[in-house]
Amino acid sequence: MHDLPLSLIGGLTGIGQFMSRGGMIFFWLFAITCLLWAVIAERLMYYGAGSQRDIRRALDLWRGRKERKSWYARKIRAALLSQVGLNLTRGMTVVKTLTLLCPMVGLLGTMFALIALFDRIALVGAGNVSTLAGDLARAAIPAMAGMVVALSGVLAGFYLTRRAAQAVTLLEDRLGLDR
Questions:
Q1: Does residue 179 lie within any of the structural domains?
Q2: Per the database record, which ranges form the MotA/TolQ/ExbB proton channel domain (predicted)?
Q3: Global model pTM greater than 0.85
């Protein structure tokens, strides 16, 4: 069995120390982050192959029609566009919800840490300012972590939404109506 490189072990130790500083809230934030990125990864994989299959199916159905200019044909075209659009945007509500949840969970962790800090001040007093400053800085870590995760979710969400809109627009152009 091969030994893990020391840099990897050091990195894992650093992650463990960071997680322990954030308290129990960090484990909730970690779970939300894993779920968020699982949904984002699924969407990226779908855009790679599944969306092309759905678009091809819609194009085949449309091209298989003999008549493409009646009211009925327009409704079928709209239904094909709608179905592909729904498939492309599936899961985006989950991405947006989890992204919005991350800063709230981080702030909750900060509030717990501040409450613990104020309890400590009430018990022992505020004699050692450097210790209190360290505890106060540690209290901000969960909020910061929540914001970092939320920022990554916002960026990924923008990318996925833009990619879905572009695919629907391209399909709309390819599903031409006869004049």
A1: no
A2: 67-172
A3: no
How far is CA 124 from each of CA 75, 81, 85, 119, 137, rounded to the nearest angstrom?
A: 73, 66, 60, 9, 19
Q: What are phi and psi of 177, to 5 degrees?
A: -100, 140
CA distance 52 to 10: 43
Look up the domain containing 56 and give its range: 6-174
Instruction: Enter the tokens of residue 101.
Output: 């949840």
- Pick from 77, 85, 103: which is nearest to 161 by CA? 85
Dist. CA 162–CA 157, nearest whole Å: 8
Pairwise CA distance, residues 126 & 33, whole Å = 36
Overall domain count for the chain: 1
Structure confidence by residue, pLDDT tens digits, 50-96: 899 999 999 999 999 888 888 999 999 999 999 999 999 999 999 99
User: d(Cα 31, Cα 44) in Å, to the nearest integer?
Assistant: 20
pLDDT tens column, 24-35: 888 999 999 999
